[in-house]
Write a structure and sequence with these properties.
single chain, mainly alpha, about 70% helix
Length: about 475
Amino acid sequence: MESTSVPMPKRIIGIALAAVCIGVSYFLPGSEALSHEGIVALGLLVGLVCLWVTAALPLGVIALLITVLLALLGVVPTNEAFAGFASGPLFFIIAVFSLPVIMLKTKWGVRLINQLLKWTGSDSKKMVLGFMIATTLVSTVMSDVPTTVLFLGFALTILKAADAKPGSSNLGKCLMIGIPVAAVTGGIATPAGSSFNVVAMNILTQATGGTISFLDWAIVGLPVAIVMTPISWFFITTLIKPEPIADSCLQGIRDEAAASKTIAPYDIKAITIIVLLVALWIIGNWVPIFNATLVALIGLAVMFMPGMNLLTWKEFQDSVPWGIVLMCGTIMTMGGVVQATGGAKFLADAIMGSGVTGLGFFACIAILFALIYLLHTVCPVGVAILGIFLPIMIALCGDMGYSAAVPTIGLAVIVAGNYLMPVNPTVMLTFGEGYYTFGDMFKTGLVPAVALIVLITFWVPFIVGVLGI
């Protein structure tokens, strides 16, 4: 969202808050607990959040400004300040933006929406629920980002047909928030649903020598996804009431679907490459050579090959929200910097030393889950958070007589289930379409976030104990 659409007082407040946070952190001395560089890194992180939440500047400008300040203020050398822009996940995000483009050029979206309309009719709430259920199901076996991109393409088909304008359409807001929320929720269900699940299990194996089977994880995680999807849908569609879908729009989609009974060669090529990409991404959970980024980039190149011609460079260039890409690069850089300068460990020590470990088991893990959830919301570095907190919580749960599987699954859910702010790559994909704001997502995600923390606090220890994991 460009800053020109934001009231001037709000922009000035955002810039002033960021300046204060960064300035104060720069003049604070380092200590044994946290180096000066670590203090400044945290100050820049808070400044980034202030600028972002108030939309004081365009996203790309905020991203570049914070990156440059990392080097100018001496937090890290210049090459390290730009490290996030050379990361594999960033190129993965760039490559998968091609999928909605080719999907919109086919009639598959119209055919799918036509089938969905037979169930929903003009009920836009049911339409949002249908999208969220489908996204959740696919995300149980496919990573969150490609799942979101896939259903983003389908959603844009109906939003285009309904002439739903970004920033004004409540249906657009509901779909653009609901799809990534459903994707991260589905990723909770199985080890294949999220890379965080695999990382958590690797840490568990290193710490204890044990593991969690696919079936056991699914027994624990699938009920969480089943419960959280309708809860999230209810608050999204209740707080942001989607406008009804006009009969003229419905009839237009039906007519277009009826005229698309013959499958064009372009449609066949497009669905073939999408299915192959999805299959290789799923296989990549167990076969490392099928790295998600490499598969996405090769798939992108194939789209331009003679005989395929699925995409032109102009179409691809125009489809990528470069402000979002720059922000993703900065977030990836900031995550590494906060960890390398000791900021992440400092926050972990502060949380673990706050006295919560002296409370009873359920109160302790509920507070820890909530604090870590908030930390991950503003600092979405899931792998680093798992690496810092999971070994500590495994030992803590062991001392209290609970299985190491409890914090392993619980923390994997925490770092995946971002319902509050569009600051991780999965949610940023739809945020870049301009349909909703930070405030829209926060108000729809607050109760589901609390529900998620309460649910995993009581459900995970119970079912892990029943299964004897």
